[in-house]
Amino acid sequence: MAELVDAQVSGTCDLWVVEVRVFSWAPLSLDGRVVAGSRASKENMKVSFQPRNKPISIHMHDGDIPNSLGFSGSVAIDTETQGLNPLRDRLCLMQLSAGDGHCHLVQFTRKTFNAPNLKKLLKNPNVVKLFHFARFDLAIIKQNLNTLCTPVYCTKVASKLVRTYTERHGLKDLTKELLGIDI
Question: Which helix (H) or strand (E) holds 159?
Fold first, then answer.
């Protein structure tokens, strides 16, 4: 898993320097499930993970993913922009990972976006797109790539539905509580 540091990227899209934090772990399975009608609690939501022994590779792409790159099942996606207004601020970078130890960073340096391979992936009904706070990412993808991304799974919405005992649903809070890892 790799996390792009938003504060380092905002407003610096035309620069080639991007801070990337790479973690050498990946969640493998959910041990506990919340049964419909039961109250969600920290005790019945257990996640196990194993350290990844091999390094994570990061692949940079200019404007689109290669035609040969394929994802099946699901892909985690995060976007970086010049600001927080989808109507004003452009897409700078998109991060994609299937959780297989490879992180693909697509850098957008132009004002026009022609990314046919990426658009095909975003529209693929057989690949679930995972986001945290999907509302912003989906808006920026629609605005810049003119693509409706489906099907979508948002970890923030899932957290709000399941973790009703708290108001803290940020990615930092989720990784701390569920995995015991500070980011």
Answer: helix 155-162
Distance CA 141, CA 145 (A): 5
For 74-107, write each residue's pLDDT tens digit: 999 999 999 999 999 999 999 999 989 999 999 9
Token reading at 129 = 């797109």
- The reported pTM is 0.70
Question: Edge-to-edge strand order for the sheet containing 57-62?
Answer: 57-62, 102-107, 91-97, 73-81, 127-131, 152-154
Domain architecture of the chain: domains with CATH: 2-179 (3.30.420.10)
Residue carrying structure tokens 């194993």: 50
The three-class DSSP label of residue 147 is: coil
C-alpha dist (Å) from residue 94 to 57, 73, 168: 16, 19, 25
